[in-house]
From TrEMBL, chain A:
UniProt KW keywords: Cholesterol metabolism, Cytoplasmic vesicle, Endoplasmic reticulum, Glycoprotein, Golgi apparatus, Lipid metabolism, Lipid-binding, Membrane, Repeat, Steroid metabolism, Sterol metabolism, Transmembrane, Transmembrane helix, WD repeat
Location of the protein in the cell: Cytoplasmic vesicle, COPII-coated vesicle membrane; Endoplasmic reticulum membrane; Golgi apparatus membrane
Topology with respect to the bilayer: Multi-pass membrane protein
Cited Pfam families: Beta-prop_SCAP, SCAP_N, Sterol-sensing
WD repeat extents: 985-1025
Function (record text): Escort protein required for cholesterol as well as lipid homeostasis. Regulates export of the SCAP-SREBP complex from the endoplasmic reticulum to the Golgi upon low cholesterol, thereby regulating the processing of sterol regulatory element-binding proteins (SREBPs) SREBF1/SREBP1 and SREBF2/SREBP2. At high sterol concentrations, formation of a ternary complex with INSIG (INSIG1 or INSIG2) leads to mask the ER export signal in SCAP, promoting retention of the complex in the endoplasmic reticulum.
Family the entry assigns: Belongs to the WD repeat SCAP family.
Name listed for the protein in its UniProt record: Sterol regulatory element-binding protein cleavage-activating protein
Annotated region described as Disordered, given as residue ranges: 60-81, 575-613, 682-739, 751-779, 792-829
Annotated GO CC locations: endoplasmic reticulum membrane; ER to Golgi transport vesicle membrane; Golgi membrane; SREBP-SCAP complex
GO biological process: cholesterol metabolic process; regulation of cholesterol biosynthetic process; SREBP signaling pathway
UniProtKB/TrEMBL annotation, chain B:
Lineage, top ranks: Eukaryota, Metazoa, Chordata, Craniata, Vertebrata
Protein name, UniProt field: Insulin-induced gene protein
Subcellular location: Endoplasmic reticulum membrane
Cited PANTHER family: INSULIN-INDUCED GENE 1, INSULIN-INDUCED GENE 1 PROTEIN
Organism: Ursus americanus (American black bear)
Function: Mediates feedback control of cholesterol synthesis.
Keywords: Cholesterol metabolism, Endoplasmic reticulum, Lipid metabolism, Lipid-binding, Membrane, Steroid metabolism, Sterol metabolism, Transmembrane, Transmembrane helix
């Protein structure tokens, strides 16, 4: 007897005994196995859900400095820092956690009193925080200067305008429900109602407003009439731009807590993962489909048992729980899974396999039926024991080989697989065998039962309920000596009523099960698709935070008012821009120390409430905050995503030749306003630009745009009645017939990437533009120039659009802006200033220069064609809200109300190339051209430090005057040359939202009060004052005879300029209120849902409505920009459309 | 697509410009498989994704599919010629397992970071042999797989040499060194499917033909996926 044979015999014997054991005591064994599974899986509870949540990384707060922009360790060398821990974070979040309760509690207090007084403490705290002055080496700064400044909310969130901060610090507290106004809070009769006002009625998985403002999960906030504990907790959330530690110290000073022991302080960096794109999902879905096919084909073979479904389920449970056990065990022993669980899961299942289970089943059912169940199981097991062991040894061997590939990912996979295989074996032996024995026993019992009653009195109802039984019996019949005769189906059908036959049919085809399955699949799909906390929120950003501080119970300190705030400043977090994987760094801000315990004054003799600070409190913020920040930031159009959704366009600027669009995230695109080609794309700083492929390549990439959440481009969801207009006179009947059909003139619909689809108008130049953008690296400049020449005849008037023609003294310049630039060489090497962070708030374009104002206060001048940074100003604390670029002068208005005047100095080295303009062109006004060989310097000439008390919201310049409008309800007029303030115009009772000034010194302004004022710029007096709209004025423009205004009420009103009488108004589509443009003195264009409409200004007649493609059907037009060459640019949020308007229209009247 | 970037250390997952460069048309494998060069940071624009999928030349997917079908037909034919029908693990579950492992190999080659190309190639070679041993174990299968891999590699070399398309960073003459391994495992997988289909009893010629058309559809899907 060889060794192998002896081994074989031993194994066989062991399996036999084991089978006997399993079949004898099925229930205890199953219970034992279940306990084992649970025990092995419990380490999993600590793991974050795979892939769905943000990733955390903790660093001590001491000596914190933001991580470097580039990973400092060598690629091969392992580092304890996660890969994403690079670059500055998006923001630092500091939360002050307040826990309070009313003490003593009197019987006669109302239920509302539980939280009235605790909540009122929030106002005081917010005030303390707002008044806090930060001191560091660079001097003292107010909170406003260091916190993250936000601009407008997204247009869709108008109803939250009063609740979330705009144009200022992102500081959230429950007080926001009452506009941070204590009086309002005290006057509020229904606090609960106010708080729950905006709660969605339906089930919602993303953060609600209450969650955001309270900062803790709803059930922990204690703000509910049914709470028993009478303990209210909330947080005050403060978002910083940079890390500052001393707010925490001050709060600790203000709210000392004698017995709060501070734990080691640390920052938690949170990284929100990128979203999964469809392209990535396709392989994933494929693998899952294969997996299901595998499971299907495997379990299909289970046969001759009592319940196929039950056994199949048991088999799948065996494999799945063995995988869970594997992960749990590995975690227990210190291995942290780094692989994407969802990705490798199918492979793990396939590697572990269902084979053994099937083999077992087969061998057991093939044992003689007349044996006792125990013996059948034991025999079946032992007969397959050898092959099972051999297979397992082989698989382990193969996997172990994989372990020696020394590739970390493969090693991890193999480790999981090995542990999974072993635990799978364990489960097969204990769990599955036992289930099998139970099944066989049941089958035997069923057979016995069958045999006893005669087959004739088979109750008819029974087969209906259990159609599977028939099949099984049919299958069993050949192998069992005692046959149950079934009537042939035809016979059976005869005896059955029709109703039963239908039921039979349903049962046979398993219609119900299939429907339910399909429904479940659809439901899960919908859940996955809509659930922001699920798949779609695989998000993005890293946040650092300081660990929760004080541990241990806080001393209860009754306050006279009976409120005991145990405020606990939680950690500060920094959110990292997930953007470029290489660049971002996380920086952490040390959180504030807990300032536990309220001020202790006047102790009450009644028992104080138990306000304790327990570990569960420390975990509180973790449960909520991380997942809610993406929501919060998305309200302000700040994306934390690595692969962001297409973003809306924030700013648009054009000078007739070029069109520049940008989004808040910082991508700037330069388009050719004639053809719609993307010329240059300036990604946001920090994102690596692949210079090897060039701009055409990047045009295919994801494209971010921002909504016009900036100045003036606001709209409000209101009612949307159908289009109506009030004609003032009888419309000329022939007008409509005379209209040219504009539809064919829609030129190019250039959305983010050049599409392969044909432009609507089959004009050769456009197609050329599109296709070239796809296959040519870089930009062939000469072709553009040629094209411009060809077009010359088409568009004779070529006055720069946004530039009031100011014939400033300048070098003789070519009329053609792009002409000055030499052909691009294909791989522009771009130098990105590492410090150039902050989103773009304002944008101007002139010649080939783009002036960009960032939220960081930096002013940058870029070359539009080459995408290179020409110069930039030093960083100032306050963001640039508006820009004027006129001639060689740049004026920047800042959030803190100051004005900076820059002058642009060029040292021109004019090359002959610049003078290639044709004679026909030279008639148009000249504009400065900055060729790439120039050196451009930007010099600060003058600063008006306190032009306004509040942020400047509107800035316009013309005729040598500069007009600013601010939130402090005033306008100021400056002289451009010497930046001397001429007038301060007062007359509005709300913040200024729109300003218009033109060459003829007409000045109009609109404010949040819905009023329009016309001013005389020469004297500074108010000419007329009109109450125009309900809600803000969103845009304002004038023609020679009338004033056109649009408001948040989605109305466009036309006023007589001299008398101030309203001529008529036009109802706009929902959300399209601000989109209007004046093409000529009597032609107005307005935007609608996926369309633009042309109106005759004199009569108020709708001339024509042009629909722009199917895609933009649902998109409201956000903004319309009229170019000088009779083209208009419509901003549909994430898409731009360029529409040519033939000059025929101008001759209409 | 990102064939060239698959071995880019650290760059495979996170490089934002890791989309396909159309001019660098990657060579697809004539047997219809190329690693699922999974791209990240792709927008959710459907058009763009579709454009990415069809960014390779239009004839590549049909050619790959046809080639895969031919290889799939060859396996049972050779079996019957040699008179040794393949008996090892002849069931659909095993075939699906084989397909899953093949997809996994592709996945690994596209997504994992290897220290260098030699390591990548060796690992893939070992994995391919493991695939053959686990699911095939026949000498004819091994021979045919090697032949297919050799022929496909030569064809790809010729195509690249003639400039039909190119790889971003070739390291084995004109192509990537791991390509033969992928060809080999692809051949084995397709052969496995073909043999299973040929097992269908009582299938007349028409039915066989239909089955193969079905297979072909499956195979054609692969390059699309990747």
């Amino acid at each position: 007897m060889t060794l192998t044979e002896r081994l074989r015999e031993k194994i066989s014997q062991a399996f036999y005994n084991h089978g006997l054991l399993c079949a004898s005591y099925p229930i205890p064994i199953i219970l034992f196995t279940g306990l084992c599974i649970l025990a092995c899986c419990c380490p999993l509870l600590k793991l974050p859900l795979p892939g769905t949540g943000p990733v955390e990384f903790t660093t001590p707060v001491k000596d914190y400095s933001p991580p470097p922009a580039a990973p400092d360790h060598k690629p091969g060398e392992p580092s304890e820092r996660p890969e994403w821990y690079v670059g500055a974070p998006v923001a630092y979040i500091q939360q002050i956690f307040v826990k309070s309760s009313v003490s003593p509690w009197h019987r006669n207090l109302l239920a509302v009193d539980v939280f009235r007084s605790p909540l009122s403490r929030a106002f005081q705290l917010v005030e303390e925080i707002r008044n806090h002055v930060l001191r560091d080496s660079s001097g003292t700064r107010g909170l406003e200067e260091v916190c993250l400044q936000v601009t407008d909310l997204l247009p869709g969130l108008r109803k939250l305008r009063n609740l979330l901060p705009e144009h200022g610090c992102l500081l959230l507290s429950p007080g926001n429900f009452w506009q941070n106004d204590r009086e309002r809070f005290h006057a509020d009769p229904d606090i609960i109602g106010t708080i729950h006002q905006h709660e969605p009625k339906t089930l919602q998985t993303s953060a609600t407003l209450k969650d955001l403002l309270f900062g803790v999960p709803g059930k922990y906030s204690g703000v509910s009439l049914y709470t028993r504990k009478r303990m209210v907790s909330y947080t005050i959330t403060l978002v910083f731009q940079r890390y500052h530690a001393n707010l925490r110290a001050r709060l600790m000073l203000l709210h000392p807590s004698p017995n709060c022991s501070l734990r080691a302080e640390s920052l938690v960096h949170v990284h929100f993962k990128e979203e999964i794109g469809i392209a990535e999902l396709i392989p994933l879905v494929t693998t899952y489909i294969i997996l299901f096919a595998y499971i299907y084909f495997s379990t299909r073979k289970i046969d001759m048992v009592k319940s196929k479904w039950g056994l199949a389920l048991a088999a799948v449970v065996t494999v799945l729980s063995s995988l869970l056990m594997s992960v749990g065990l590995c975690t227990l022993f210190g291995l942290t899974p780094t692989l994407n669980g969802g990705e490798i899961f199918p492979y793990l299942v396939v590697v572990i396999g269902l084979e053994n289970v099937l083999v077992l089943t087969k061998s057991v059912v093939s044992t003689p039926v007349d044996l006792e169940v125990k013996l059948r199981i034991a025999q079946g097991l032992s007969s397959e024991s050898w092959s099972i062991m051999k297979n397992m040894a082989t698989e382990l061997g193969i996997i172990l080989i994989g372990y020696f590939t020394l590739v970390p990912a493969i090693q991890e996979f193999c480790l999981f697989a090995v542990v999974g295989l072993v635990s799978d074996f364990f489960l097969q032996m204990l769990f599955f065998t036992t289930v099998l024995s139970i099944d066989i026993r049941r089958m035997e019992l069923a057979d016995l039962n069958k045999r006893l009653p005669s087959e004739a009195c088979l109750p008819p109802a029974k087969p209906v309920g259990r159609p599977a039984r028939f099949e099984r019996q049919l299958a069993v019949r050949p192998s069992t000596p005692h046959t149950i005769t079934l009537q042939p189906s035809s016979f059976r059908n005869l005896r059955l009523p029709k109703r039963l036959r239908v039921v039979y049919f349903l049962a046979r085809t398993r219609l119900a099960q299939r429907l339910i399955m399909a429904g479940t699949v659809v439901w899960i799909g919908i859940l996955v698709y809509t659930d922001p906390a699920g798949l779609r929120t695989y998000l993005a950003a890293q946040v650092t935070e300081q660990s929760p501080l004080g541990e241990g119970a806080l001393t209860p300190m009754p306050v006279p008012s009976g409120v005991l705030p145990a405020s606990h400043p939680d950690p500060a977090f920094s959110i990292f821009p997930p953007d470029a994987p290489k660049l971002p760094e996380n920086q952490t801000l040390p959180g504030e120390p807990p300032e536990p315990g309220g001020p202790a004054e006047g102790a009450h003799d009644s028992p104080v409430p138990e306000v304790t600070w327990g570990p569960e409190d420390e975990e509180l913020w973790r449960q909520l905050s991380f997942r809610h920040w993406p929501t919060l930031f998305s309200y302000y159009n700040i994306t934390l995503l690595t692969a962001p959704l297409p973003q809306d366009i924030e700013c648009l600027a054009s000078d007739g030749m070029l069109l520049v669009s940008c989004c808040l995230a910082g991508h700037v695109c330069v388009w050719d306003a004639q053809t719609g080609d993307c010329l240059t794309r300036i990604p946001r700083p920090g994102q690596r630009r692949d210079s090897g492929v060039g701009s055409a390549f990047e045009a295919q990439e994801s494209w971010e745009r921002l909504s016009d959440s900036g100045k003036g481009g606001s709209e409000e969801p209101g009612d949307s009645p159908p289009l109506r207009h009030r004609p003032r006179g009888p419309p000329p009947p022939a007008l409509f017939r005379d209209q040219p059909d504009l539809t064919c003139l829609i030129d190019t619909n250039f959305s983010a990437q050049p599409r392969l689809s044909e432009p609507t108008q089959p004009e050769p130049r456009h197609r050329a533009g599109c296709s070239r953008a796809r296959d040519g690296p870089g930009y062939d400049f000469s072709r553009l120039v040629q094209r411009v020449y060809q077009e010359d005849g088409l568009a004779p008037s070529r006055a720069p659009a946004l530039r009031p023609a100011s014939p400033g003294p300048g070098p003789p310049l070519t009329p053609e802006d792009e002409g000055g630039c030499p052909p691009e060489k294909g791989s522009p090497s771009l130098a990105w200033a590492p410090s150039a962070d902050g989103s773009i708030w304002s944008l101007e374009l002139q010649g080939s220069l783009i002036v960009v104002g960032r939220s960081s206060g930096r002013l940058e001048v870029w070359d539009a064609i080459e995408g290179t940074l020409r110069c930039s100003s030093e960083e100032v604390s306050s963001g640039i809200t508006a820009l004027v670029f006129l001639d060689k002068r740049i004026v920047a208005a800042r959030l803190n109300g100051s004005l900076d005047f820059f002058s642009l100095e060029t040292h021109t080295a004019l090359s002959p190339l610049q003078f290639r303009g044709t004679p026909g062109r030279s008639s148009s006004p000249t504009s400065p051209v900055y060729s790439s060989s120039d050196t451009v310097a930007c010099r600060l000439t003058h600063t008006v430090p306190c032009a306004h008390q509040k942020p400047i919201t509107a800035l316009k310049a013309a005729a040598g005057r500069l007009v600013t409008g601010s939130q402090d309800h005033t306008l100021r007029v400056f002289r451009l040359e010497d930046s001397c303030c001429l007038f301060t115009l007062q007359g509005h009772s709300g913040a200024i939202t729109a300003v218009y000034i033109d060459q003829t010194m007409v000045l109009a302004s609109g404010g949040q009060d819905g009023a329009i004022c016309l001013w005389d710029v020469l004297t500074g007096s108010r000419v007329s004052h009109m109450f125009a709209h309900r809600g803000d004025i969103t845009s304002l423009t004038c023609t020679t005879s009338c004033v056109i205004s649009s408001g948040l009420d989605d109305l466009i009103s036309i006023w007589d300029r001299s008398t101030g009488i309203k001529l008529y108004s036009i109802q706009q589509d929902l959300g399209c209120g601000a989109s209007l443009g004046v093409i000529s003195d009597n032609l107005l264009v307005t935007g609608g849902q996926g369309c633009v409409s042309f109106w005759d200004l004199n009569y108020g007649d709708l001339l024509q409505t042009v629909y722009l493609g199917k895609n933009s059907e649902a998109q409201p037009t956000r903004q319309i920009l009229v170019l000088d060459n009779a083209a208009i640019v419509c901003n549909f949020g994430s898409e731009l459309s360029l529409v040519y308007v033939p000059s025929v229209l101008e001759k209409l009247d | 697509p990102a064939l060239g970037q698959t071995t880019d250390p650290g760059g495979a997952g996170t490089n934002p410009t890791n989309t396909e460069a159309t001019p660098m048309a990657l060579s697809r494998n004539p047997t219809g498989h190329s690693p699922p060069a999974v791209q990240r940071n792709v927008t959710l624009f459907p058009e763009e994704v579709i454009a990415t999928i069809f960014s390779s030349a239009w004839w590549v997917p049909p050619c790959c599919g046809t080639a895969a079908a031919v290889v799939g037909l060859l396996y049972p034919c050779i079996d019957s010629r040699l008179g040794e029908p393949h008996k090892f693990k002849r069931e659909w579950a095993s075939v699906m397992r084989c397909v899953a492992v093949f997809v996994g190999i592709n996945h690994a080659s596209a997504k994992l970071d290897f220290a260098n190309n030699v390591q990548l190639s060796l690992t893939l070679a070992a994995l391919s042999l493991g695939l053959w041993w686990t699911f095939d174990r026949s000498r004819s299968g091994l021979g045919l797989g090697i032949t297919v891999a050799f022929l496909a590699t030569v064809i790809t070399q010729l195509l690249v040499y003639n400039g039909v398309y190119q790889y971003t960073s070739p390291d084995f003459l004109y192509i990537r060194s791991w390509l033969p391994c992928i060809f080999f495992s692809g051949g084995v997988t397709v052969g496995n499917i073909g043999r299973q289909l040929a097992m269908v009893r009582g299938a007349a010629g028409l039915r066989m033909f239909l089955s193969y058309r079905e297979t072909r559809a499956v195979i054609i899907a692969f390059p699309l996926v990747s």
